[in-house]
Amino acid sequence: MSDVSGPPQSEDEQRRLMSIVHALDNASRLAEMANSEVDFRTVGGGPDEVRAAALCTDAMRSAALVAVEVAALPGVARNERRHATPGSPDADPTLDTTAMPTEEALHRLELCAKALGELRRNYRSATLSAVANGVLTAGEAIVRVDTVRSLAALTHHAWRSAAHLVGRGE
Q1: Would 170 be classed as within a structural domain?
Q2: Based on the structure, what is the number of domains in the chain?
Q3: In whole angstroms, what is the distance from residue 157 CA to residue 59 CA?
Q4: What CA–CA distance (Å, rounded) separates 20 from 104?
Q5: What global pTM score does this model have?
Q6: DSSP string, 99-131
Q7: Domain that includes residue 16, residue range
Q8: pLDDT of 69-87, one tens digit each?
Q9: What DSSP line would sit under 27-83, residue for residue?
Q10: How far apart are CA 70 and CA 23, in angstroms?
């Protein structure tokens, strides 16, 4: 990106460049959230908290699958991509890049992001109500709400970044 100079030669190039910039912006926000001081262990063990964590985990796996496809060299067969260098997302033996096509992974990522966004809205209301009922302290409730909000933000930014990278950013 730093080597780009001058305007793109065509409208298609301009759209692709804008998509890449959007993807980078979302990836930057994702990295910022991932490196934040949020302690994800502060979420309770109730069904909403477990679901939020599961949705975020599923989303990150789907995002990793999309990333493998985006990062793959042209001409490399799909089944050869799952043997990546140690430390890369697909080096995890549980992450089989042949198991889910990119479009399906992107769709799953979108579903996770939307479901977690909805869960976050309902969870916030229920958790703050628990303060009024004396079940939680205000401090506990705020930490829990912030943690679920962070999970939702991670998922949202992963989805948007992945969507822009594969040309579905709209």
Answers
A1: no
A2: 1
A3: 10
A4: 21
A5: 0.74
A6: SS-HHHHHHHHHHHHHHHHHHHHHHHHHHHHHH
A7: 11-165
A8: 887 755 544 444 444 443 4
A9: HHHHHHHHTSS--GGGS-SSHHHHHHHHHHHHHHHHHHHHHHHHHSPTT--GGGTTS
A10: 12
